[in-house]
Amino acid sequence: MNNLKNAVQTNVAAKRAAVALGLGGLLLATPLFAQSQYVYAQVLESRAIYQSVTVSTPRDECWEEEVRVRETRHGGSQTPVILSTIIGGAIGNAVGNNKSSQRVGTVVGAMLGHSVGRDIVRADSHPGTARYQTVKQCETVTEYREEERLMGYQVRYLYNGEEFTVRTDNDPGEQIRLRVSHDPVL
User: What is the pLDDT of residue 84?
Assistant: First the structure.
């Protein structure tokens, strides 16, 4: 019985070791354990890349302008219109001899009186002297212009005897920094 127990324990231990070895090998093969280092490569050429863009700029354009201002002598009173309407209605009412004709006469007299009153107000409010006033006028004007903008750099460099090309935001100068990873292959 002890032999059977020992055999089972040995078999379980062997399986555990195999699983541990398999997992360990898998972990070593993943990029988690890849080693990285930084090196410098010689820059052969660094060429600036430009792009043409349209830029719009709004601005206010102002000028002074002479404007004619009319002055009226009338203060805007509607009293003559009201009075002539009442007087016209009263005269029209007095002209009629029965109720029906008095009503028609009142309406017609009021309309004529109103018209006469408006004419009086217009005649009294004719333009007085004209004068000129300087007024500042402005409008927004948009100006467009073409502009060259730096978009980055096309960099050609030499690493381990081979030429490579990369686009960068900044000019790297005489050397470019590279990250080199070493991944073990099992």
Answer: 72
